[in-house]
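Team,

Forwarding the record for the chain on the shared tracking sheet. I've put the sequence and predicted structure together so nobody has to dig through attachments.
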Amino acid sequence: MTRVGTAGYPRGSKGPSDALRRLREAGLDAMEIQFVRQVSMPLERARAIGEEARALGVRLSAHAPYYVNFNSDSGSTRQRSAGWVLETVRRCHAMGARVAVVHAASYGKSPAAATGAVVEGLRQVREAMDDEGLEAVLGLELMGRRSQWGDMEELAQACAAVEGTAPVLDFAHLHARSAGGLREKEDFIAAIEECRRISGEDPHCHCSGVEYGDKGERRHLDLDAAEPDYGLLAEAAATLGDKATLIVESPRQLEDAVLLRRLLGK
């Protein structure tokens, strides 16, 4: 069954246990824990959260810090980027979370070198993961700004080069980056099928409305306040597969996750 949940704890939650309870009471069954500023959660706490989530039937994932940039001109930033991703993966492993979501790079001064730099950084992380026996998928997010590494072709190249990676299909980002490219049900189907072709698995996805311009994404908006039309995703829902996850990143968060669940009819 496709899982639906929120990016982070629902507003007003008194910690992760309360967040998990609120999600289940709302009929939701996924949550992406946000390590976007720092990874400070103790491993024992991560294990406890994982046990609670499993008991409640909530699928967990996690988002690595926004500071990651494997294509930085600074060698120390590239090295720290690998460390930030690895720390996120350690928490994923402890929680039993399947996907560690990563914003991998910006193009910066060397866009031609970006994919190679991302591959090099991911291989470094994978080597450390293998050494420590860590299990998680490195989820490479499709990015919404044209200054950021991460269109579908680039994701495919990196995933082909590094074992244990998969694209994270952000519908709002794809819509913004393609100047409003998700216009028909078939557009959603094509994006989902391309992600499945790259990874061989049902996709991990992000959903929100989006404001965009010539350079791509400007900001996230509520699910029904802007493009794309998630009614079209509902029409394409059969393409998602039984193990897909939809994480809602809109400002309205919990309410929009419930709305998306209702649209999907699940």
